[in-house]
Design a protein that fits this description.
The protein is an all-alpha fold and about 550 residues long. It is built from 27 helices and no strands. The chain is elongated, with a radius of gyration of 35 Å. About 15% of the residues have low confidence.
Length: about 550
C-alpha cells in the first residue's frame, strides 16, 4: 500500500506543474501580443519568463525573433538551435536560422539550413530567394539563378528576387539578361538604390558608360547623403567618367568617394591612374604612397607606386617597389611584366627577358608580355659585343613614360586590382662597332667627363637636382659632345620645372645624336609642359618612328 504522505506529495507536485504550465502559457501569449505590437524588449522578457517556467520550441522560436529585432543574432541562433532539437520538422526554425547564418558569413551552415527548410515544405518566394542569395555567395551562380527563378514563379511582384537573379546573371557575364531583370525590379520598386548600382555596373561592362552614369546619378538622387550607396555610386561613376576620358569629373567623383571611404586603397589607386593619364605624376605618386601606407602588403599598391617612381626618373625606388610586388605576389604576372619592362628600358635585356618569360609562364596568353619580350629579344640581337668600352655610356638616364590605363567600373565590394602597364619602347641605337684591339685597362680618372656624368645621374636618381645639375655641367664642360649629359641635364631641368633650360639642353642632345630616342621623348614632355602641343606631337612621332624595329 502506497503511503498517504507520498500520494500527497505527488498531488501537490502535479498541481504545481499544472500551475507553472498555465503561467508559462499566459507569459507566452503576452509575449505574442508584445511581438505583434512591435514591443520587442517586452516580448523578449515575456518569452524568457515562459521558457523559465516551461521550455517549448515555440517560445524559443519567438524569443529568437525578438532577439533578431534587438540586434542579437548570435543569441537568436542559440535559441533556434534549442528549438530545432525540440521540433526537428519545423521548417520555420531552419528558415530563420539559415538566414541568420548567411548574415554571419556562415555560408555552408546557412545553405544546409535552407535546404532543410525547403525539404520540410518552406517553398515560399522568401525561402528560394534566401537560398539563392547563399548560392550566389558561394559562387554557385547557376544554382542561384534556378532558386531566384523559383522565387519569381512563386511571386512575380517581388523586386528583390528579380534583382537577385540579375546579380547572378551578371556574375556569369550575361549582362544583357541581367539588365532585363534589373529593369523589372526597378519597375516594381523605382526607389531601390542598390538595383540602380547593379544595373549601372552591368552597363559599364557592356561599354555603355553613359547609361551607367545615368543610373549612378539616380542613386545619388535617391541617397544624396554620405552612406555606402552614395560611396559606391561615386566610385563607379568616377570609373565610367575615366573610361570616357572626362578626367576632371572622374577625379571629382573619386575625391568625393574618398570622403565616404577614406581608407579605401582601391579609390586611391583609381584616382592615381587618372592623375597619371593627365601626366600629373607627382599627384599620382602621392595617392600611391597613401595606398601603400594604408595597405603595405598590397602588391598592386607597390606595383602602381613603382610605375610613378619610374615615371619621375627614380628608377632605384621603382625597381624596389616592383621587387616587393613580386615578393608579395610571386604568382602575379603583371608584376613580372612591369619589372621586365623596366629592365628593358634600362637596357638590362637579360634580366628583362627572364622576367617577361616568367610573366608568360604564369599567363601564356599575355599579349603585352609577349610583345615586350619580342622587342627585348630583338634588342639583344642588335647589340654587338665590343672588346673596348664605348666612348661614353649608352644607357639613358630616365625611362620613357608609363602608359597607364584607367580602371573599368567594378563592383564596390570587390575591388579589382590596379595593373601598371608595361614600360614599352625601343632602345636607342646600338653602340658603334669598334675594332677588336686588345687594350690594357685604364685607371678611371675621377675628374673625367664620364665620372661627372655618372655622379650626376646618381644624384638625379636620389632627387638631388641641384647637385645633379652641377655634376652634369662639369661633364659637359669637359666633353662638349656628350649627348647623354645634355639629355640628363635637360631632364633634370624639366623636373625642376625650368622648361626653357630643359629645352635648350634637349635640343643640343638631339643635335649631337639625331637618333637619340629618349631625348625626343623628353623634349616632347618638356614641350608639352611649356605649352607647345604641336612640337610635342612632332617629337612623339619622331620617337615612334625611331623606335620601330
Amino acid at each position: 500500500m502506497v503511503p498517504l504522505k507520498f500520494v500527497c506529495c505527488l498531488l501537490i507536485g502535479a498541481a504545481a506543474n499544472a500551475g507553472d504550465a498555465k503561467k508559462a502559457q499566459r507569459d507566452f501569449e503576452q509575449g505574442l501580443r508584445y511581438e505583434q505590437a512591435g514591443k520587442m524588449q517586452e516580448a523578449y522578457w515575456s518569452f524568457s519568463q515562459a521558457l523559465a517556467e516551461n521550455p517549448t520550441d515555440q517560445a524559443y522560436l519567438h524569443r529568437a525573433r525578438a532577439q533578431v529585432a534587438l540586434n542579437a543574432p548570435l543569441k537568436a541562433i542559440d535559441d533556434l538551435s534549442h528549438a530545432s532539437g525540440m521540433a526537428p520538422n519545423n521548417a520555420e526554425i531552419f528558415l530563420l536560422r539559415g538566414a541568420l547564418y548567411a548574415k554571419q558569413g556562415e555560408k555552408q551552415k546557412a545553405l544546409d539550413d535552407l535546404n532543410k527548410a525547403i525539404q520540410l515544405g518552406a517553398t515560399t518566394s522568401d525561402a528560394y530567394s534566401a537560398r539563392g542569395g547563399v548560392e550566389e555567395l558561394l559562387g554557385h551562380h547557376e544554382r542561384a539563378v534556378e532558386d531566384y527563378s523559383a522565387a519569381i514563379r512563386q511571386r512575380l511582384d517581388d523586386p528583390e528576387a528579380w534583382k537577385g537573379r540579375g546579380t547572378a546573371l551578371a556574375a556569369m557575364g550575361r549582362y544583357r539578361d541581367a539588365i532585363d531583370d534589373y529593369d523589372q525590379s526597378i519597375r516594381l520598386n523605382p526607389n531601390l538604390a542598390a538595383t540602380y548600382i547593379e544595373r549601372g555596373f552591368a552597363y559599364g561592362q557592356l561599354g555603355d558608360f553613359r547609361r551607367g552614369i545615368d543610373d549612378f546619378d539616380k542613386v545619388l538622387r535617391i541617397d544624396p547623403g554620405s552612406g555606402p550607396s552614395s560611396g559606391k555610386a561615386l566610385t563607379l561613376r568616377g570609373a565610367a567618367y575615366a573610361k570616357l576620358k572626362d578626367y576632371d569629373a572622374a577625379i571629382a567623383d573619386f575625391t568625393a568617394a574618398l570622403k565616404i571611404f577614406p581608407k579605401d586603397v582601391y579609390l586611391y589607386l583609381a584616382r592615381s591612374s587618372v592623375y597619371a593619364a593627365r601626366e600629373e605624376h607627382e599627384s599620382a605618386l602621392a595617392d600611391r604612397e597613401e595606398a601603400v601606407r594604408l595597405s603595405p602588403d598590397s602588391a598592386e599598391a607597390h606595383l602602381a607606386r613603382g610605375g610613378s617612381y619610374h615615371q619621375l626618373g627614380l628608377h632605384e625606388k621603382g625597381l624596389a617597389d616592383r621587387n616587393e610586388a613580386i615578393r608579395l605576389r610571386p604568382d602575379m604576372p603583371e608584376a613580372w611584366l612591369a619589372r621586365g619592362s623596366a629592365y628593358f628600358l634600362l637596357h638590362e635585356y637579360e634580366k628583362a627577358a627572364a622576367d617577361l618569360q616568367q610573366a608568360l609562364k604564369l599567363r601564356p596568353d599575355y599579349a603585352e608580355a609577349r610583345d615586350v619580350l619580342a622587342k627585348t629579344n630583338a634588342a639583344m640581337e642588335r647589340t654587338t659585343v665590343v672588346t673596348m668600352p664605348p666612348a661614353f655610356p649608352t644607357r639613358p638616364v630616365e625611362p620613357e613614360p608609363v602608359r597607364e590605363t584607367v580602371p573599368a567600373p567594378a563592383p564596390a565590394v570587390t575591388a579589382a586590382p590596379v595593373v601598371v602597364p608595361a614600360l614599352v619602347s625601343a632602345p636607342p641605337p646600338a653602340p658603334v662597332r669598334t675594332p677588336a684591339i686588345a687594350a690594357a685597362p685604364k685607371k678611371s680618372d675621377p675628374n673625367s667627363a664620364d665620372d661627372h656624368y655618372k655622379k650626376g645621374r646618381d644624384l638625379l636618381y636620389q632627387s638631388k637636382y641641384a647637385e645633379a645639375i652641377a655634376e652634369l655641367t662639369q661633364a659637359i664642360e669637359l666633353r662638349r659632345d656628350l649627348a647623354l649629359a645634355y639629355n640628363a641635364r635637360g631632364f633634370t631641368y624639366h623636373l625642376m620645372r625650368d622648361e626653357r633650360r630643359a629645352l635648350a639642353d634637349l635640343d643640343e642632345a638631339i643635335r649631337l645624336n639625331p637618333k637619340y630616342v629618349n631625348a625626343y621623348h623628353n623634349r616632347a614632355v618638356a614641350r608639352k609642359a611649356s605649352g607647345d602641343a604641336a612640337g610635342a606631337a612632332a617629337d612623339l612621332a619622331k620617337e615612334r618612328d625611331l623606335s620601330r624595329p
